[in-house]
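Notes from hallway chat w/ T.B., transcribed later so I don't forget. T.B. wanted the structure written out for a chain they're using in a teaching module, and asked if we could keep both sequence and structure tokens in one place. Agreed to drop them here.
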Amino acid sequence: MIAALAQSAEKYSFLLSQLIARDFKVKYKRSVLGMLWSLLYPVLMMCVMAVVFRGVFRFSTPGVSYLAYLMTGLTLFNYFSEASNLAMSSVVANFTLLNKVYLPKYIFPLEKCLFVGINFLLTLLPLYAVILLTGTGLCWQHLLLPFDWLCLLGFTAGMGLLLSAAAVFLRDLFYIYGIVLTVWTYLTPIMYDIRMIDSPPLAALMRLNPLYQYILFARTIVLAHATPSPRQFLACALSALAVLLSGALVFRAKQDRFIYYI
């Protein structure tokens, strides 16, 4: 199933590129700073969160830079948040196009994940600026980070397929998912260390969060300058594969009924 998606995506690569170009034009239309916002937004978010959680609530990460710790988590989570949100509404938003010509419907959530992925690559510039300016430094293990990013892309694409299929039948999902994302943000150790959790059962439950695994993988490299364990590699790969496969199967099973609801 996943191989078929990849082959079809290659077949419609020109369409994907045109949709991505359209989204960039729409997003930055009449914007003075344009794509510079892709660099400024994560930095501004980091500054706000650092003031609130480090300055007010006194959160700390002993032995490592809190700014680098925070920026690493924010960069990965922001990608998932924006991409899954856009993917969720992608099929409904393109219903006029679907009514006129035949297109593989999964192209739309996939395109959103790739479109935000380009912005994600741009946010790596401020991330590495923070890494260097805080004295965190670089190591050869950074060459392993693309594996983490690829797993995050697969997980996000799977969630995008699930959400976009569900949103066709349940428009309330557009409002519900905003609340889910807010809860998900605070249940993911982005601005705090999971070792601060006093309850072992709660901490164990939070470790099952796939986004925590992707962030932990990146932080192991960025902050500890260490190679992630085989268990971390396996957790990232299996969670991404499971969600991507589930999303593809659900989307495929439901896509023929989309036309009756959009």
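Follow-up for T.B.: The longest helix spans residues 66-93. Might be a good example for the class.
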